[in-house]
Every structure is written in structure tokens, then in C-alpha cells.
Amino acid sequence: MLRVKAVDLTPNPNALKFILNKKLTNGAANNFASKKEAQNNPVAKGIFEINGVVSVFYTENFITVEKEPAASWQNIQLQIIRFIGSFDESELPAEISEGESLEEERKSSALNKINGILDKRIRPLLATDGGGLKVISFEKNTLRIKYEGACGSCPFAIIGTLKTIEQLLQREFDPNIKVLAV
Questions:
Q1: Given this model, what pLDDT does residue 100 score?
Q2: How confident is the model over 27-47, as pLDDT tens digits?
Q3: Separation of alpha carbons 50 and 167, rounded Å
Q4: 62 with 17: CB under 8 angstroms?
Q5: pLDDT tens for residues 71-95?
Q6: What's CA 85's distance to the chain center, in Å?
Q7: What is the DSSP code string of 43-104?
Q8: Cα dihedral 29/33/38/44 (nearest 10)
Q9: Cys-Cys link to 19, which of 6, 86, 146, 181 (CB 3.0-4.6 A)?
Q10: How far separated are the first and last CA of the chain, in Å rounded?
Q11: Domains located in the chain, CATH noted
Q12: Is residue 157's pLDDT more than 90?
């Protein structure tokens, strides 16, 4: 039975990280910025049924939920815990691989090296705060990324983390790389 083991605060005051007793995925990240996007995903769709929820992000063993700034966690948190506890695990969607064009880009040695650095040094740190990072593109020495989960609307991610990622990649990959958040 799926259960919430703990609820963690994130640097984003409008997002909480619900740590689960089981894995939901085998590493695939699922990010939903609207109720409409979540219609074909029973996990996200069920959470979006709770008033005040504005985004859902989940991967492996946690779900990060972002609420409207005016909404109260007191009203939302218990409903999320109840939903997770009653969720029928047989309804979990199959993991979906990323699109063809991104998959082709990942085959390049440059993008593989960048993702290796991000996988080892950045993504685990973002996951501890209930977030994630998706590579959107790499063209003309400019890496475009998208923050997910709690990091998606967190001012710390947009300001500090972005510069940290760029500096890390400049040291370990190419001194001329630029990193932009989309």
C-alpha cells in the first residue's frame, strides 16, 4: 500500500515534498503545470482535484505539490495524504520516454557529458528540495533547462541555482557554455 512517510518543506514556500514508502517510477520525472496536462495521469489528476493545487511533480519516491499562494496548507496537506493512501497502484501509468528529438540530442557526446554532470552533481540536490531539472536543448553552446517541481517557481532556483549550474558546467565541461532557464 502506498503511503506518505514524511512531508518536507522546500525552499519554495508554496511547495511541499511528500516522501513515499515506495517508488512510483524507476527514475522518470513527471511534471504537470495544469489540471489539463494531468488528465491522462491518475496520480497528478487526483491531486489536481484538490482545491488550491497549481502543479504536481513526481519521480521515484516523492511527489512535490505546489499550491496557490493564497491557499492554506492546512486544508490541502491532509487531502493529499489521504489521496496517496487510497491511490490504487495498479493505475500507475507506464513510464514514457522523452521525445524523439531530445533522444537524438542525448546521443551526442556533449549532451551525454552535460547530463552526466547534472545527474551526479545537480539533480540529486534539487530532488532533496522536491524539484528536478529537465534539459530542453543544447545549441550553439547554450544549454536551455527547465526547472520542475518545487524548483519550477522558486526564486532561489532562478537566481542562485542557475548561476551555480552554469559555473559548474563551465568548470567541468566548457568554459564558454551559457545556461538559460526557460
A1: 45
A2: 788 999 999 999 999 999 999
A3: 39
A4: yes
A5: 999 989 999 999 999 998 888 876 6
A6: 21
A7: HHHHHHTSTTEEEEEEETTEEEEEE-TTS-HHHHHHHHHHHHHH--GGGPPPP-PPPHHHHH
A8: 60
A9: 6
A10: 37
A11: 4-91 (3.30.1370.70), 100-181 (3.30.300.130)
A12: no
List the helix and strand counts (H, then E) for the chain: 7, 8
Phi (first) and psi of residue 55, to 5 degrees: -155, 155
Using CA atoms, how far residue 77 sits from 15, 19, 50, 112, in Å, is: 10, 13, 10, 38
Query: Strand order of the sheet with strand 62-67?
Result: 4-9, 15-20, 62-67, 53-59, 29-32
pLDDT digits (tens, 9 = 90+) for 104-146: 544 477 888 999 999 999 999 999 889 999 999 998 899 999 9
Lookup result for grid cell 550553439: 140
Say how many C-beta atoms besides its own lie within 10 A of residue 2's C-beta.
17
* Joined grid coordinates for residue 64: 512535490
The Cα–Cα gap between 167 and 88 comes to 43
